[in-house]
Specification:
This protein is mainly β. It is built from no helices and nine strands. The chain has strands spanning 2-7, 10-14, 19-23, 32-41, 45-47, 55-65, 69-75, 80-86, 89-99. Strands 1, 2, 3, 4, 5, 6 and 9 form a seven-stranded antiparallel sheet that branches. The protein has a two-stranded antiparallel sheet with strand order 7-8. Strand 1 and strand 2 form a beta hairpin.
């Protein structure tokens, strides 16, 4: 059985026991969160009104930051260059239960 969840403007295909890095949410480590369900499959795919009561519960494992991405702006012949870095924050969750 798997479910497709939506959080942080992205969609993830998850099963029970999976560890998933999602966009940062305001929850402490060890908290249980409920995630929005788009589709559920247990042999047949259910979407729309069929999954209106479906829930995915997950436990927050860790809060962290991704590896640094370097952003470099350069304009030739003018001596202009700018180097900047960015680390995207994430929340790592463990999928505990899929209720369809």
């Amino acid at each position: 059985m798997y479910a497709i969840i939506a959080t942080g403007g992205k969609q993830y295909k998850v099963s029970e026991g999976d560890l998933v890095n999602i966009e940062k949410i305001n929850a402490a480590e060890g908290d249980t969160v409920s995630l929005d369900v788009i589709a559920v499959s247990d042999g047949t795919l259910k979407v729309g009104a069929d999954v209106a009561s479906a829930k995915v519960s997950a436990t927050v494992v860790a809060q962290g930051k991704e590896k640094k991405v370097i952003v470099y702006h350069y304009k030739r012949k003018s001596g202009y260059h700018k180097k900047n870095g960015h680390r995207q924050p994430y929340t790592q969750v463990k999928i505990e239960k899929i209720e369809a």
